[in-house]
Structure formats: C-alpha cells, structure tokens
C-alpha cells in the first residue's frame, strides 16, 4: 500500500524538454493521462523485479516517467507509444541510452513474436483496457510478468471472486491463463490530466500452462461469454438461446443449470464447456 503520500506534487523539471512537456496537450481520443509522481513510478518499476538480463515491453511510454527508470535497470526496453509527438520528444530526452527502442505504433498491432521472453509494464488507457488484456492473453507465451495500471473498476473485474457483481467472463478467461494480485491504488491527483476515477496497479503472472486443460480454448471462451450474456438469466436459458441446444438435452449434462453464471468457479466452467462440447459432437 502507498503510505504518507504528500498533498502536493513535485514541480516539473526545468529546461527545454520540461517546457515542451508542460505545453503538451493530451489527445482525449487516446485516453491520455500521464503519471506525474516519481515515487509511484519507482514502486511500479520495482514491482517488475528487474534483473540486468531482463528485457521489458512498455505499453504507452507517454512522457517517459517509467521509461527513464526502466532503461537504468533492464538489459533492453521496447517502448511502444501511439502518439508520434511523444515519440519524437522521448527520442530527444533519452537519446543517450543505447538499450532503448522507442516504437511509434498501436500496441494492439505490435507483434511480440520477434522478441525474447519479456516483462511488461504500462499505464493502460481506460478505453482500451479489455482489448489490451485480451492482447496479452493471446500473446501469453511471450511474457512472464506484467505490472499494469488500470481503472480501479476494471482491475476489480479481473481480480473478482465468484458470487460478486464484478465477476464475469473476463475474470474467468483471465484466470485460466494468468494469476494476479492488487498492488495499490493511485489517486487521480498523481496523473495529468486528472482522471475522474481511482487507478489500481496490478501484478500479473502468466501461467506456464493453463490452470486447467481445455480441449478447445475458443469453444471454452464462447461458452463463458454466452453464460454471462444476460447476467440475470439462468445458465439454462442463456446457453439454450446462444447454442440452440434443446433444454432437455442441456439438463442431461449433470450440471445444475438453474444457477447463474456468476456462481460458477473456473473449474466448473471447464467441466461445463467439456460436457457441452461432448453433447454437440454426439448430436
């Protein structure tokens, strides 16, 4: 937990680069909100547990508050930034570092296949949080650990437990492939411009193997999403409507389908998916 946070922020650095950054106007469509408080940046980088042999992918390098710390600890840093204005300024600011590549690209189109196994860090734009999480899941074989700053409500969704209102399809699919824990909350005052909500830093570890073996991962994801498609309806009604399977057939699966999706554990969803697939194949 963060303790004894000061009420005021440190002043911006002097010099040409500081003036450029001070005059920088964020683009609302990119959801830009830049971390400004150095001690929080220190804690985020520390949470990555970097060694001199580690290579790091930074999602959205922004004004470089994390980047300048990463290049001093990691073997190599790939800083992906969608805003060309920031890329040009960061190349000027961090020109002395030979272990840094600043890439002007949308992270969702960036191919990790050519990189060594990496660690990941980033302050994630709230508007694309889901897309980035699923991007990381698709590329889970290329990274070990990620430290992400997310909107608090979104972080609660990936950390949720069964039976809670935050628990959903994202939670289930995410937990099959990764494990996560909350690090700390970050107040709006430590970003510029200030977001309207709290942020939460989360540590995510990619599992070497899925927590449970699933024969068809695409079908599993489809079942989970359909089960949550209308939260107030039972599993029986949601699965009947989406999979077009007769209700009498579904009730022979040996699973209580009068329950709602948010009451099922990950293990129960795996069993449900496997039995549904067997039912479809035997039809």
Tell me what you see in this structure.
By secondary structure, the chain is α/β, with parallel strands linked by helices. It has two domains: 16-206, Rossmann fold (3-Layer(aba) Sandwich); 217-282, Orthogonal Bundle (Helicase, Ruva Protein, domain 3). 35% of the residues lie in helices and 18% in strands. It has helices at 16-23, 38-47, 67-70, 84-93, 129-138, 152-159, 169-177, 217-227, 235-243, 247-250, 266-282; strands spanning 34-35, 55-59, 76-81, 100-104, 118-123, 143-151, 178-186, 191-192, 199-206. The protein has a seven-stranded mixed β-sheet, with helices on both faces. Helix 5 links the parallel strand 5 and strand 6 (143-151).
Low-pLDDT ranges: 1-17
Would you list the SSEs in sequence order as H and E? HEHEHEHEEHEHHEEEHHHH
Fourth CATH level, the homologous superfamily of the largest domain? Vaccinia Virus protein VP39
By secondary-structure content and strand pairing, the structural class works out as alpha/beta
Q: In CATH, what is the class of the largest domain?
A: Alpha Beta
Broad shape: elongated
The CATH architecture of the largest domain comes to 3-Layer(aba) Sandwich
Helix percentage: 25-40%
Q: What is the end-to-end distance?
A: 54 Å
The main pleated sheet reads as:
7 strands, mixed
Family: Belongs to the class I-like SAM-binding methyltransferase superfamily. rRNA adenine N(6)-methyltransferase family. RsmA subfamily.
EC number: 2.1.1.182
Function: Specifically dimethylates two adjacent adenosines (A1518 and A1519) in the loop of a conserved hairpin near the 3'-end of 16S rRNA in the 30S particle. May play a critical role in biogenesis of 30S subunits.
Subcellular location: Cytoplasm
């Amino acid at each position: 937990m963060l303790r004894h946070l000061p009420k005021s922020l440190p002043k911006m650095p002097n010099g040409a680069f500081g003036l450029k950054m001070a005059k920088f106007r964020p683009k609302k469509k990119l959801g830009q909100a830049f971390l400004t408080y150095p001690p929080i940046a220190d804690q985020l980088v520390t949470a990555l547990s970097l060694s001199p042999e580690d290579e790091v992918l930074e999602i959205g390098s922004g004004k470089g508050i994390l980047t300048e710390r990463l290049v001093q600890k990691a073997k190599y840093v790939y800083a992906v930034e969608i805003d060309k204005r920031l890329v040009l300024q960061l190349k000027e600011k961090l020109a002395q570092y030979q272990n840094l590549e600043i890439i002007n690209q949308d992270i969702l189109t960036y191919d990790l296949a050519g990189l060594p196994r990496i660690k990941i860090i980033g302050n994630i734009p709230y508007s694309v949080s889901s897309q980035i999480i699923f991007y990381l899941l698709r590329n889970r074989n290329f990274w070990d650990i990620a430290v992400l700053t997310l909107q608090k409500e979104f972080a609660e969704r990936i950390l949720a437990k069964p039976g809670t209102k935050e628990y959903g399809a994202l939670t289930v699919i995410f937990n099959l492939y990764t494990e996560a824990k909350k690090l700390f909350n970050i107040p709006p005052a430590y970003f510029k411009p200030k977001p309207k909500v709290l942020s939460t830093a989360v540590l995510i570890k990619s599992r070497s193997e899925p927590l449970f073996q699933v024969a068809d991962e695409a079908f599993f994801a489809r079942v989970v999403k359909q089960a949550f498609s209308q939260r107030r309806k039972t599993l029986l009604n949601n699965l009947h409507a989406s999979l077009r399977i007769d209700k009498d057939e579904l009730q022979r699966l040996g699973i209580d389908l009068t329950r709602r999706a948010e009451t099922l554990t990950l293990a129960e969803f795996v069993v449900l998916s496997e039995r549904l697939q067997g039912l479809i194949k035997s039809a």
